Amino acid sequence: MEMPLSITFSHGDNEGMESPGTCIKRERELRGFSLKDVHEATRIPEKNLIALEADDFDALPQQAFVKGYIRACCKYMGLDETDLVLRYELFIKEDTPEEEAPPPIESKGPVRALSLSSKQIMTLLVVIGIIIIVLYYFLSASPRSVEPDVAVIEPDVPEVNVEAPASAVPPEPAKPLDPVLTPKPEAQVPMAGHVLKVIATDDVWIKFSIDGKKPFEVLFKKGNTRQWLMKKGVDLVIGNAAGASIIFDGEPVKMVNMPGRVVRMRLPSK
Predict the structure, then answer these.
(1) In what order do the strands lie in the sheet with 244-248?
(2) Which of 25, 69, 109, 264 is most buried, most CB within 10 Å of its CB?
(3) Helix (H, G, I), strand (E, B), or coil: what is residue 229?
């Protein structure tokens, strides 16, 4: 069995390290694969494969797409995708100038640092968004009158049939009971038009455009679950078709289960 490619890095010393594109090209040629073979297996355009092997990352899409390309090539050729992605990140970091850090802010008293992870920040933003949507629909709903609930308890008395004699005085007709007030059903708070749920089955990058608004990007880690509410619908660009499970209005969306394939879709489709 062919062992995956393994790369060892020394801390703080990346000089002389083979670039990710050079490594992928060398392994492809050693295995006798052509660019067309890789293209047909991964559906990555040949021009992007050429740019990837030439380390021309400026000619490629965002880094999330490039990582998806690298993972797809590694899975096809039997390479260790973790090592190749790490090599790519180090290569990009060396080519990106470091920004000068701002001077520290002096504090006159003890300050307790509050640090939140990116996952906690995104969760907080989603919760705030849901609260704003619910408040908006609740306040825009028509006012309704609220009547107190009235509970009526009837005694459990067995029925007894008594035949009155002919000479008996006929009983007085029973007085009608007071009408029982029944509570009116409460008006339902209108819900959002659609619900989108994303479950990450692998590391995956997704671009969203909800209700025609400005697009935003989210990089999911395996096991992440996110949910959005919307009025009209959403446009999606998924960097790895096999890395996400999409559920729209409670129904799973069918997709081509192919690692590394970029999928574009609009929900609802009509």
Answers:
(1) 225-230, 194-200, 244-248, 251-252
(2) 69
(3) strand
What are the two backbone dihedrals, phi and then psi, of residue 247, each rounded to the nearest 5 degrees?
Answer: -120, 120
Is the whole-model pTM more than 0.70? Answer: no
CATH of 20-95, one of 1.10.260.40, 1.10.530.10, 3.30.70.920, 1.10.8.60: 1.10.260.40
Per-residue confidence in pLDDT tens, the chain, 270 aa: 444 444 443 334 445 678 888 999 999 999 999 999 999 989 999 999 999 999 898 889 898 999 999 999 999 988 888 988 998 898 888 766 555 445 555 545 444 545 678 888 989 999 999 999 988 887 876 555 444 443 444 445 444 444 544 444 555 655 554 444 454 554 444 455 899 999 999 898 999 999 999 999 998 999 999 999 999 999 999 988 788 899 999 999 988 777 878 889 899 986
Question: Quick one: tokens of 203?
Answer: 């590391």
Residue 170 to residue 24: CA distance in whole angstroms: 107
CB crowding 60-71: b at 16 or more within 10 Å, else e: eeeebbbbbbbb
Q: Which residue has the tokens 């060396």?
A: 94
